Amino acid sequence: MNHALKPIVFATGLLLGACSLNPEYHRPAAPVPVQYPINADADILPLPTSWQEYFTDPELQKLINIALANNRDLRMTALRIEEARAQYGIQRADRLPTLDATGTYERSKMIFAQGQTFDVDLYRASVGISGFELDFFGRVKSLTTALLEQYLATQEAQQTARTSLIAEVAASYVNIRALAERLALAKDTEHARNLAYSRILRRHQAGLDNAMDLKTAEMQLETAQASIAALQREYTQAVNALQLLAGQPGLAITVPQERLDRIAFSPLPVGLPSTLLERRPDIRAAEHRLKAANANIGAARAAFFPRIQLTTNVGLVNEHLSSLFSSSSDKAWAFSPQLTLPIFNHARNRANLDLARVRKEITVAEYEKAIQTAFSEVSIVLLDREQIEAQIASQTRIADADRERLRLAMRRYDKGVANYLELLDAQRSLFESEQQLVQLKQLSLTNSINLFKVLGGEWQAS
């Protein structure tokens, strides 16, 4: 073997034999109960592997696809992944020697004892390694591991942002559908009150109704028109909000002329709290940050030990540039290891180690909080689901009763048995009950969207 290559081979062998001072990693126990406070159903159902399997409405799928492609917040999180990947690549490169080629020219004057002088020209071309750290104690390896875990945490953060965006688009779409249905109910009410006003006007002109009834009918007609204006304003704002989420201002949004009852999402297997550790990307990101903090302790420990850096090169030397790469050139090589032993910075290294340990404890607390937050969010959604369904059942019966009451009040008024105030009260009660029923149905759909979000969104079965 060429003697000039031995230093490089030696350095590579030492690199491969590097050890690690990282503490052994143990996943902290999940600080949550083993069961949710309410029995969850649908546990035997298969896990959906994509959001399309859960949100099956064609118009909603189109809007989500547009948002995933154009939303600026999601685009920024994707760029942060590229940033973290580049940082990891830079740190990872430090684990391998960097081979550089250099060319130098040197001119000097030599003076001998007899007073003779002459000029010397030297041209040098060489390749070599400069300042490469032999990672005996795993300092560079620990730093590389920490950045890898940070990069993986950034990836999980991007998945969290993606899931949140899908849920926000779905909730915004449901809100638009609900406002459209409420607006249609308001227009129906306005039409009915307009007919009632016309009837009372004729009766007033015939002397059958008094001026009080006429003014009351007029006031109720204006109230219905004001409700239409308010709902129209909310609808426009909801459309603008959805266009912003989709990243396309002015996007045409098609709203099917169907009731909210026609929207349905696929059932989700809730599972046990322990499954959240694998489902939730924010929990996975917190664990990656915990592993990074664990690796930083290893790097802080390695700072107490000597650091060895290697500089070596091999090349050719000649007095003439034109002959530098000819057989007349002399061969030259250098091997310069450097040992740096910490002596008077023990206090600084001890403080850095204490800092790394404290930061790990902080990330442990953050990891446990992420688990507890996830458990709380799922529990709230499950508890709300039962209560909302009970409310919808009760409100449906109320709306049916109000509808029948209005029919009877209309008959009594036509026969002259009841006055207009009784009919007016029945109309107002039906309008309010129908509006509340639509809002409760929207709340139920939003609860299902939140369940998709708090369970981790889209995931692959283990």
Structural class: alpha+beta
Find the CATH topology of the largest domain: Outer membrane efflux proteins (OEP)
Task: Estimate the helix proportion, in percent.
Answer: 55-70%
Q: Percent of residues in beta strands?
A: 5-15%
Which strand order spans the largest sheet, edge to edge or round the barrel?
Answer: 1-2-3-4
Any low-confidence stretches, pLDDT <50, length ≥5?
A: 4-17
Name given to the CATH homologous superfamily of the largest domain: Outer membrane efflux proteins (OEP)
Assembly classification: single chain
Span from first to last CA?
A: 51 Å
3D structure, described in words:
The chain is 60% helix and 12% strand. It has helices spanning 6-16, 58-70, 72-93, 139-205, 211-246, 276-279, 281-302, 346-414, 420-454, and strands spanning 99-111, 117-134, 307-318, 330-340. Strands 1-2-3-4 form a four-stranded antiparallel beta sheet, covered by helices on one side. The protein starts with 5 loop residues before the first helix and ends in an 8-residue tail after the last helix. Mean pLDDT is 84; it is low at 4-17.
Topology:
Elements lengths: L5 H11 L41 H13 L1 H22 L5 E13 L5 E18 L4 H67 L5 H36 L29 H4 L1 H22 L4 E12 L11 E11 L5 H69 L5 H35 L8
Antiparallel strand pairs: 1-2, 2-3, 3-4
Helix pairs in contact: 2-4, 3-4, 4-5, 4-7, 4-9, 7-8, 8-9
Membrane topology: Lipid-anchor
Subcellular location: Cell membrane
Family: Belongs to the outer membrane factor (OMF) (TC 1.B.17) family.
